[in-house]
Amino acid sequence: MKKILYTSAVAALLLSSASCSNDFIDVNHNDNEVYNSELSPKERLAAAETTLHATHATTLNQFGNLMMNAWTGNIYQYTAPFDDEMKMNVNSTFYNEIWDNYYIGIGNLQRIIDTPNANAVYPGYVAAAKIMKAYYMQTIVDLYNDVPYSKAFNFQGNVTPKYDKGKDIYQALLKELDEALVLFNTTTPPTILASSDVMFKGVTDDWIKFGNTVKLKMLVRLSGTTDSSVTAYRDSAMNTWPTLSKGFITTSAIINPGYSSAATAQQNPLYRNFGLVDISNQLNANYRLVLASANIVDHMMGRASLTSGVIDSRIQNMFRANVWAVLEGAQITSGFTGYYGLQQGLTSNSNNKGGDYAGLGAKQFLITNSSDGSKQDGIVMSLAEAELLQSEAAVLYPAKFSDGQTHFEAGIKASFTFYGLSDASANTYITNSNTKANVGWGASTNKIAAIQYQRWIALTNINPTETFISYTKTGFPDTPMPVGATTATRPVRLIYPQSEYVANSANVPNMIKIDAFSKTNQYAPFWLK
Description:
Strand order of the largest sheet: 1-2
Largest sheet: 2 strands, antiparallel
C-alpha cells in the first residue's frame, strides 16, 4: 500500500479529550519510517472513528451519489464536471482515496485490538474497535473483493502483504463481531469512557445494537451466494448470535467529536466539502459543483413512469429548486420554476439555464451560517438504513426475521423524520406509493426492488455507496447510464489503487478496466457467485 502519514494532530483538533502525536498507519513503508505506537486505546478510538467517518461522509458520498444517478455536475459553472464518473473511466486512480483513507482508520482500530493485554485492560475498546473494523472493512471488500487483511496490519513487519480472499475476510469479520458482542454482553459490561467515544459515548447497549446491525448487514449481503463454504459460515453466524435479543439500532448512529467552525479541520466533513458556505461564510466551490440529477428529481416528483403521479415531499429538504436563480439571480427558462434535475453526462445544454436546476438542499447542505452547518452531527448509519435492512432480512430470511412491511414503512418514516417532515406526510406518501410496483410495498411482487428503491431515496446524500453496492447485488432500482458513458453498465467493483501496483506489485491482482464491469469473472464480488 501507499505510504500514508496519519497526522493525528489534525484529529486532535477535533477531540478535546485526546492527546495525540504523529502516527504512521500503513503496510508498505521502509525501515526508515517509524510507527508511533504510544497512543493508548482511550486516545486512539475517537481518532479512528473520526478519520473513517470523514471519508465515509465525503468521498463515498460523492462516489455513491454519482454512481446511483442522484447527483450530476453543474455544467453551467464548470467544464466537464465529474467527467470520469460520467464516462465510467474506472482505473487505478479512480477513487483511490477510499482505499488509502479506510486503511488508515482501520489500522488505528487494529492497533487498539493488538494493544498488549488489551482484552484485560481495555476490553470495551477492543470490542468497539472490532465492530468498527467490521463495518468499514466490509465496504473495502465489497468494493475491491480480494484485499490485504490477515497480514495487512503488521506494519513494519510486512511491507508487502498478501491478498486474502474476500470470502475469507467476511468470515474473519463475522468471527470478530461475535467476539466483540460476547465482550459487551457480560454481567459487568466493559467500560468505555464517554470522552473517548465520539459515537456512542461509551453506552454498551448502543454498541451492541450497532454491532448486531453491522452483522445483519453482512449476512444480508451473503443471501444470494451459492458457494457452499460461504453458506456454511453464513448460516452458522446466523444461528450463533449471542446478543440478537438486544435488537438493532433504534436511533441513527451518529458521530460528533466536537464539530465546529473554529477551524476548517474541525467542521463536519460533509458540510465542509459540500455545504453552502465555507468557514468564512463565503460560497463553497463544491456546493456550486453539484446539481440534482434529472433521474432522482423526476422520480421524486412523480414524473418518472415508475412513480407516475406520486410526489415524494422529502425532495424539499434533499434538494433546493432553482438554486442558482435563488442564490445569484440566474435566469429561469419559462416553465422550469420548481424542481427539475439535469440529465447525467450532458456537457452543454443551451436550451436551458443554470437557474432551472435543483442543487443540494436545506437539510445538511443549505445552512446559511457556517457555524450551524459546521457543528451538525455526522451520520454513520441512519435509522432509515437500519429499518430497511431489517425489512430486507425479513424477505430473505423469513425463518429468522419477520415484519418486513412494518420495517419497510418504519424506514420510510425515519427518513421523513430526518428531513423534518411529519408522520402524516410519511403516511400519505406510503399510501400513495403502495399503488406503485417496485416503489411501495403493496403493489410490489418483488419486495427487494421496493426496498432498494426506498433505500436509494433514503440514503442519497447520506450513505449512497451502500445503495450502490446493493444495486450491484440486486440490479434495483433501474438506473439510467449517463449521456456519453463509454460502457453499457456501471462497474461492479473498483480497480486497485496505483500505489498497490507500485509498492505491492508481487501480490496485487493485475486488472484492466473491463475486469471491473463483469459480475462473473474472478475479480467480481464473491457474494455475486
